[in-house]
Design brief:
heterodimer, A: mainly beta, B: Rossmann fold
Chain lengths: 323, 395
């Protein structure tokens, strides 16, 4: 480890200590593209294993975790040297995961096996396998870390897994093909996108974690067939004032008012917009656009797309280093 | 629609979370009628022993995984019968209390079996028969069609041809009744979308083109001369439902042109290389379970039972009429790895779905094509629309 820390230090000296980086997983190109979040230039592209999809960072930003779906493993990279450090057991076909705020464990959706695998990132061992619905995908963790939510695409449910005993305590039926789950930062509400149903389910969460379906938000864009409005990635501002929803082949990100739960705007981005991530401070929102092989940078305050950057083949997920 | 769904969702959720709804045991059957048949032209088209049953087995797993969270169990019985034994096989299933039957049969048996099932108030899903009449004047109120009709298939091909600006068609059909019915579907599609059939030819079925007859030796001499001196055309449309000559057409034409329909670019419900819209994991699950590639009748059986499972999940009912009413309602929707939800036509019980255009290796395109619009759903540009439907059973 010593030489790694040394090289990390050298790297930081060379590139400027606190330059932010966006890591983009390219599902088809089997690479990770690194983009500088100040200049918005591509710094590097490195091999990410076979079919990299879910992508996240350790809380300190030092480690990059990538679901290499076709390798049945999670690959772990150094965020300064881009060297692969080791792999973590993930169960088969890991697609998307969420990391505990402490840095361990990872909660991983195994799409082909109807499981959520819980992996200790320090001991490199599997702590639990939780049977869930068919084709698990979306993963979210409540801000108090007591609940992990998994959405299953063919079962059409959000499963609420108690992190103390790994038992499912609640299930909520949502519309067809739920893809992504996102808690508000105070844990009072959860948003679940349904790609084929074309809606986002708004689920209110009680103090004890009990969820209640409040309503569903639909989308409408003049000149776009309703069938193309397919909600996938969801990101909520930490103050809850805005919720952004990536609409897949509609090539737009919907902006939802956190109070009224009405759609207030649609922002044009690249083709087949999939996942999203905020820069620290939520100044910018970065979207991955699978069909145009680029990412779009949205100015969050202005709610405008300001730039697109070409990345690798079929960008899927994005993770951005913390401050 | 959202408001009408809300009480339903609330009811289901109460059980999902609190465990107070009743447990349901859903028993279904797949009844496959096996006909005495000649070998296909290609070994790739041999019918596996577990055809359709394999799709049902996967659907049982999928439904059971979901049902686990709701207290619902699923069990599907698979039965194969010769045509003359099919009614007795169905009678046994009905006597056993089964009220949901996926039938994999040709039109005459499907109709007879559906009528027998209706006496027991059982719901039938058609997993094979593509005839337009089954969705028209011969429709049945207890018969839902999962398999696309020949009209949907022909319209899917026609839209692609129009999109390509291949508007002059040479229609080549077989001489058997099902080939002629398919040719009629292409004539209708040409009229509907503005293509011109510049000439028609019928290649007579005299027997002897199958692979075991060294079919290629014969057709290599016959087909090019048969295809000589045609009117100028952009594309050859093949209507060979009985599968005896079309597969040879693409490389045995006189004038080189693309072939679509029964060979070349074919309209299918699914194929084993289809990966878009999450289908990769569906293929993975199917292959892990069955150790073979999926075929259309597997997909149709899977989809039929997923329709049933979805209706049970959303209504918490095991009553056939309640479930059919829900399936035919605006509230019903299902994801089927086709990029948009599949739903049902309330006027004739046909499942709306996109049609894949397949060249025997990849999905070349998917219909409906861009720009073909409909006031209800672009999917209703494929097949019989409400105003042209002769079906009255659902009124």
């Amino acid at each position: 480890m010593k030489h790694l820390m040394l090289s990390a230090a050298l790297c930081m000296a060379a590139t400027g200590a606190f330059a932010g980086k966006a890591f983009v997983s390219n599902e088809r190109g089997n690479t990770i593209t690194v983009v500088d979040t100040e200049t918005w230039e591509v710094i590097e592209e490195f091999s990410g294993g076979n079919r990299p999809r879910g992508i996240t960072l350790s809380p300190d930003g030092a480690l990059l975790y990538v679901c290499a779906s076709d390798d049945d493993t999670v690959r772990v990279f150094d965020t300064e040297t881009y060297e692969e450090l080791y792999t973590l057991p993930s169960g088969p076909d890991p697609e998307l995961f969420v990391i505990h705020p402490s840095g361990s464990p990872l909660y991983i959706a195994n799409e082909d096996d109807n499981l959520v695998t819980v992996t200790d990132t320090e001991a490199h061992t599997i702590l639990a396998e939780v049977p869930v619905g068919v084709e698990p995908e979306g993963m979210a963790i409540s801000p108090d870390s007591k609940w992990v939510v998994n959405t299953s695409e063919t079962t059409n449910m959000a499963h609420f897994i108690d992190t103390s005993d790994y038992q499912i305590k609640h299930n909520i039926l949502v519309d067809q093909r739920p893809r992504y789950a996102e808690y508000l930062s105070d844990g009072s509400r959860l948003f679940v996108s349904s790609e084929i149903g074309g809606t986002v389910s708004v689920i209110d969460v009680a103090e004890d974690g009990t969820p209640t379906l409040k309503q569903k938000i639909g989308f409408e864009v003049p000149g776009v067939l309703p069938e193309w409005l397919q909600p996938v990635g969801v990101k909520a501002k930490s103050d809850g004032s805005r919720i952004f929803v990536a609409l897949g082949p509609a090539n737009r990100v919907a902006v939802i008012d956190g109070e009224s739960l009405e759609v207030v705007d649609y922002i044009m981005v690249g083709q087949r917009v999939w996942q999203m991530a905020f820069t620290p401070g939520e100044e910018y929102l970065v979207t991955t656009n699978g069909n145009s092989n680029d990412i779009t940078v949205i100015d969050v305050a202005a709610e405008k797309a300001i730039k697109s950057i070409q990345v690798g083949q079929q960008p899927w997920g994005v993770a951005i280093t913390p401050d | 629609m959202l408001t009408s769904l809300a009480p339903l969702i609330a009811a289901v959720f109460l059980f999902a979370s609190g465990g107070i709804a009743q447990a349901l045991d859903i028993r279904a059957a797949v009844l496959r009628v096996d006909y005495p048949e000649l070998l296909p032209i290609s070994r790739y088209d041999l019918r596996p022993d577990d055809l359709a049953f394999a799709g049902a087995a996967l659907a049982d797993e999928d439904n059971a995984t979901t049902g686990r969270f709701l207290g619902h169990t699923y069990e599907t019985v698979s039965v194969a019968a010769a045509p003359e034994e099919a009614e007795e096989a169905l009678a046994e299933l009905l006597a056993d209390g089964i009220r949901y039957v996926v039938i994999d049969a040709k039109a005459p048996e499907l109709l007879a079996l559906s009528d027998r099932a209706a006496e027991a108030e059982a719901l039938v899903f058609n997993a094979r028969a593509p005839e337009v009449a089954l969705r028209g004047e011969e429709c049945r109120a207890n018969l839902l069609h999962i398999a696309p009709s020949v009209a949907m298939q022909a319209d899917a091909v026609a839209q692609f041809a129009i999109w390509k600006q291949w508007k002059r068609w040479l229609l080549v059909s077989g001489s058997n009744p099902e080939d002629r019915a398919l040719a009629e579907a292409y004539r209708r599609a040409a009229r509907k979308f503005g293509a011109t059939i510049v000439e028609e030819r019928e290649f007579e079925d005299t027997g002897g083109t199958r692979r075991t007859d060294s079919g290629h030796v014969l057709v290599q001499r016959q087909l090019p001369t048969f295809m000589q001196r045609t009117e100028p055309h952009d594309v050859v449309i093949a209507a060979d439902a009985s599968d005896y000559f079309a597969a040879y057409l693409p490389y045995h034409l006189w004038t080189p042109r693309p072939v679509m329909g029964s060979a070349g670019l074919r309209p299918v419900a699914i194929h084993a290389a289809h990966e878009a819209w999450g289908a990769t994991q569906f293929q993975n699950r199917f292959e892990e379970l069955t150790q073979r590639h999926i075929q259309e009748e597997d997909y149709n059986a899977w989809l039929a039972l997923r329709v049933l499972g979805e209706a049970v999940t959303r209504t918490s009912s095991d009553d056939p009429q309640t479930l059919e009413d829900y399936i035919l309602s605006d509230a019903f929707e299902l994801a089927a790895f086709k990029g948009q939800k599949v739903t049902f036509r309330a006027w004739n019980g046909q499942l709306r779905q996109p049609i894949l255009l397949y060249d025997d290796r990849i999905t070349v395109s998917v219909s409906p094509q861009e720009g073909f619009l409909h006031q209800r759903s672009p999917l209703d540009t494929l097949g019989l629309d409400e105003p042209e439907s002769a079906c009255t059973a659902f009124q």
